[in-house]
Design brief:
heterodimer, A: 82 residues, mainly alpha, Non-ribosomal Peptide Synthetase Peptidyl Carrier Protein, Chain A, 4 helices, B: 357 residues, alpha+beta, OB fold (Dihydrolipoamide Acetyltransferase, E2P), Dihydrolipoamide Transferase, Chloramphenicol Acetyltransferase, 3 domains, seven-stranded mixed β-sheet, 20 strands, elongated
Chain lengths: 82, 357
């Protein structure tokens, strides 16, 4: 999967969790959950959606590696072997 | 004859708008079946019926706004003979036209012989513009919250207690259990906290129930209202039923389902009308503690703040440990601070034994 495609898939899923999200205004290098106001239930639902769409399983122990959108995209890239 | 009335779906509800019937005249219904969808100021609620019977007449029409307690439908009880149907006089052509135009013929004023409804009457009724106003959900929800919280602070003499609870054992227990679970079955700390509150409440029945007509009524079960914030602002606190008897995994599924349906605006009447206590968790927003406003006619509210590492002194040693501040807002008419303090202490002990949850 190309980086742009991965990014757009991730933002698409994020928007289903947080419909009011302005994806264009997202600062990719800053903590994601604060910007998007994701509580732990939203976050879990987001990970479930990623799991269903991209077939990746993200263990709880890895949450710390996923602070920003850039972190998340890099992590997924590694998981997907792209 | 059974009268199906618009139930109160929370202390802040005075009226509701019927969105749709889920049943038709002549249809048999079972206790617990969803029979109608009613729009309250907070959500579209699926309203259940609490009797078996056969629908005889649907009185309220979709789109109508009616006060709580209004008879919306009549049903015959099992074994009861159906009442004779009185039909409004109308010509067959008028009935056919009413059906085509989706006009309720019983509401049309007849100008024909003996007040019979004519085709012209039906058409003139259909031509009248609908006067249903569009509801501003945000403004309505604000009003509903204002009414309930205003009543709470006028009527309920609150007392507030707080207790720091070490969370290391619960967090480690949960992390171990979640390691073996796929992402779809992962359990959040919030589900564990709900279960701990419910189990502890078994020993403190005076915190679980309602204050009505100058007296405390214990709840029939431990139905925990979960405060759920809406992304556009406002909140609802629908119940998960019999929390003390359910597994943490089961509670997690119920919680996820409830949050999803609350945000989609599709809750059930039993969830809205019968929480016996409310739990609110504002730790996600980063506050240390929340001293909540009790949702009348309930008599207590338990709040959880953020789980954060603190300096923790124990057995003469100081270490860093994850700690959460749990609070109790109690109705002083129904319980005293002494019992409330015992409750929080018991909750703290309960959370030190996560394997029993």
């Amino acid at each position: 999967m190309k980086p742009e495609e991965l990014r757009s898939q991730v933002l698409d899923l994020l928007t289903t969790i947080a419909p009011e999200l302005d994806a264009g205004g997202l600062r990719a290098g800053e903590p994601l959950r604060n910007q998007v106001d994701l509580d732990s239930m939203d976050w879990l639902n987001f990970l479930v959606a990623l799991h269903e769409r991209l077939k990746v399983d993200i263990p709880e122990a890895d949450y710390g590696k996923l602070a920003t959108l850039d972190d998340l995209l890099a992590y997924l890239k590694g998981k997907l072997g792209a | 004859m059974i009268e199906f009335k618009l139930p109160s779906l929370g202390a802040d509800m005075e009226q509701g708008k019927l969105l749709e019937w889920k049943v038709k005249p002549g249809e048999a219904v079972k206790r617990g079946q969803v029979v109608a969808v009613v729009d309250t100021s907070k959500a579209a609620v699926e309203v259940e019926i609490w009797h078996d019977g056969v629908v005889e007449e649907l009185i309220t029409k979709p789109g109508e706004t009616i006060p709580v307690g209004t008879v919306m439908a009549r049903l015959t009880a099992p074994g009861e003979a159906a009442a004779p149907v009185t039909r409004k006089p109308a010509s067959p052509a008028a009935r056919k036209r009413a059906h085509e135009l989706d006009v309720d013929i019983d509401k049309v004023t007849g100008t024909g012989p003996h007040g019979a409804v004519t085709v012209a009457d039906v058409e003139s009724t259909a031509a009248k513009p609908s006067i249903a106003p569009t509801v501003d959900r945000q403004a309505e929800m604000r009003k509903a919250i204002a009414a309930a919280m205003g009543r709470s602070k006028r009527e309920i003499p609150h007392y507030y207690l707080s207790e720091a609870i070490p969370m290391q054992r619960a967090i480690e227990h949960l992390a171990r259990a979640n390691e073996a679970r796929p992402v779809t079955e992962r359990v959040l700390l919030g589900a564990l906290q709900l279960k701990a509150v419910a189990l502890t409440l078994r020993q403190f029945p005076e915190l679980n129930g309602f204050w009505r007509d100058g007296a405390f009524q214990p709840g029939a079960g431990i139905h925990v209202g979960v405060a759920i914030s809406m992304r556009q602002g406002g909140l609802v606190a629908p119940a998960i039923h019999d929390v003390d008897g359910r597994s943490v995994e089961d509670l997690m599924r119920a919680l996820a389902d409830l949050v999803k349906r609350a945000r989609a605006g599709s809750l059930r009447s039993s969830e809205m009308s019968d929480p016996t206590i409310t739990v609110t968790n504002l730790g996600e927003q980063g506050v240390e503690a929340v001293f909540g406003v009790i949702y009348p006619p309930q008599v207590a509210l338990v709040g959880f703040g953020r789980v954060a590492e603190r300096a923790w002194a124990e057995a003469g040693a100081l270490r860093a440990a994850p700690v959460v501040t749990a609070t109790l807002s109690g109705d002083h008419r129904a319980s005293d601070g002494h019992r409330g303090a015992r409750f929080l202490a018991a909750l703290r002990e309960q959370l030190q034994r996560p394997e029993t949850l």
